[in-house]
Amino acid sequence: MWAPWLSLPCHSLKVGLCLCTFHPTASFVLPRTKMAYQSSEAKKEEFRKYLEKSNVIDALTKALVNLYEEPERPDKPVEYIKKVLGGPSQDDYERLKSDNERLQQEVEQLRKRLGESGAA
After folding, report:
1. Adjacent-strand bridge partners of 31
2. What are the phi and psi torsion angles at 14 (to 5°)?
3. Which domain holds residue 74?
C-alpha cells in the first residue's frame, strides 16, 4: 500500500526520515554528501519495508482515512487516531489511574486490619 506521507519532502516529517544534517556551528541545514545520501536512502527504504511488513503503514493509513472521512473534525485528532488504533483515550487513562489509586488505598487499609487482627 502506498503511503504518501512517507514520500514528503525533507523536514516535513518528525520521524527521522530527513535527508539533511544539522551543522553544529551554524544555524542552517546542510545537504548530506552523495555517499551519505545513498546510505540514508538505503536506511529509509529498509525502514519503509519494516513498516510495510509489520502493517504499520496499513494501520496508519486506515486511521488517517477514517479521520479524513469524519463529517465533523474531532477537537483532538491525536486522541481520535489513538482510539481508532485501539489505544486508551485520555479519559480512560485518567479513570484507570484513579481506580488504581483507590484500590491501592483499599489494599493498605485491608493490610492494616489484617495486621491488627493477627496481633490481637
Report:
1. 20
2. -115, 35
3. 58-87
The model's pTM is 0.47
**Do residues 48 and 1 touch, judged by C-beta distance below 8 A?**
no
Q: Round to whole Å and give the CA distance between 99 and 93.
A: 10
**Overall number of domains in the chain:** 3
110 shares its domain with 94: yes
What are the tens digits of pLDDT across the range 48-102?
A: 999 999 999 999 999 999 999 999 999 999 989 988 998 887 888 899 999 999 9
Residue labelled with grid coordinates 556551528: 25
The verdict on 82 and 92 lying in the same domain is: no
